[in-house]
Write a structure and sequence with these properties.
It is flat and about 60 Å long. The chain is mostly helical and about 160 residues long. Among the domains are: about 5-80; about 125-150, no CATH class. The longest helix is centred in the middle third of the chain and has 37 residues, at about 40-75. The chain is built from six helices and no strands.
């Protein structure tokens, strides 16, 4: 890549970072909790807070990616794939300037992540592996006993 193209990407990354930091500051100001006496308003506010928290986390991650790309420009490794060390196509960098992977490696990484996510979703919760154990735990928690401890009553009373 020429120094002119690198300078263009440096400027684009700096502008995006500045804009994102401004939005992040605004979201952090909105994230402040205000005491509310109405339970319905409190639930709505908690929902807004959760959404705001997720948006802040996403923004922080994006800022980190932008900073990594700016560092790569200074280091001379910008435009190189982090996995295969091949060159990232210019069109991809124009579309997503903070890219660290070429298209092929990015697709492989996404497929691997999707596979891990699918495995986690398909795995049954621990409680469902042994339903009778779950039933005892649920009953003991309902009665205030510590989790996993059997109640002082006979076990037959809780099986069904």
């Amino acid at each position: 890549m020429t120094s002119r193209v690198m300078h263009k990407f440096h400027q684009v990354l700096q502008d995006r970072k500045a804009g994102l930091l401004l939005v992040l500051r605004q979201r952090l100001d909105l994230h402040r909790v205000s005491p509310n006496s109405d339970p319905v308003d409190g639930v709505a506010e908690l929902t807004e807070q959760e959404l705001c928290s997720r948006m802040i986390a996403f923004s922080r991650t994006r800022v980190r990616h932008l900073e990594d790309s700016l560092w790569a420009i200074q280091n001379g490794s910008y435009g190189r794939c982090a996995a295969c060390d091949g060159e990232i196509p210019l069109k991809r960098l124009e579309a997503v300037p903070w890219s660290t992977y070429c298209v092929a490696c990015h697709e492989k990484a996404e497929a691997a992540q999707a596979s891990r996510d699918t495995q986690q979703v398909r795995r049954p919760p621990r409680e469902l592996e042994n339903p009778s154990e779950f039933r005892v735990r649920r009953v003991s928690v309902l009665h205030g006993w510590s989790r996993g401890c059997l109640p002082p009553c006979p076990r037959d009373r809780y099986s069904a």
